[in-house]
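Q: Could you fold this chain for me?
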Amino acid sequence: MDYTKNEMMAIVTGRELHDGELAIFGVGLSMLAGYFAQKNHAPNLMAFTEGGVFGSTPVGGLPWGIEDCRISANATSFTNAIDALGVLVASGRCDVGIIGAAQIDKYGNVNTTGIWGDIPAPWKAHKYTMPKVRLNGSGGANEIAVGCKRFIIMANHEAKRFAEKVDYISSPGYINGGNDREKYNFPGGGPCAIITNLGVLRPDPVTKEFYLESYFPFSSVEEIKANTAWDLKVSPDVFVIPEPTEEELANLRAVDITGSLRKK
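A: Sure. Below is the predicted structure, expressed as structure tokens.
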């Protein structure tokens, strides 16, 4: 069957979303995954963006921003980020969110702030130092990581991105593992999956370290381990994820009608 890595990642992420849930996701692959789920198997999925656009579906293709006409034209309500992040997410009402990551570690901590390289990172220097590369920041991802009942991380799988320890925690996962999140009284439960263009990682129920649960038909355990900077553990029951069905692909492409994310 003819499909791309991006399409596989979006479909597998969409399979994590359930009918009737309240969900938040941003532009790009996370939005494709969310609206694919709504069209495919979760018609009552209640979707909103961090900008406060609630109850809409994309018109004329996926939007370029979280409030442009393609996502706001048929919205049920159009409010603001305070309502979206400060009320629905921060209160713990939101069931699931999807975020991206420039850098991610074995406990699901996400860095979208900067890359320090051989310069002492803030966690080494105990103060913020100028990074080699300044990234875009967390946007609403920090609020999603803290407040959603669970959240999913989507990222391309490569060693420079999957680090032993992130240079900076923009959006917290399980911090240092175990019950570390409980120290901060976060209303949300933490990351339930890391879904990449190669496979799916899940947190160990006790240590919270992410392990390889499954991989895509075009990938392998060896390829995924080679592209992970930490010593990635592999489930004894690791399995190959089924390919997209014809119906899933048709529903996905009905959302991404311009094919803007159908690369690779």
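A (continued): The chain has one domain: 5-255.
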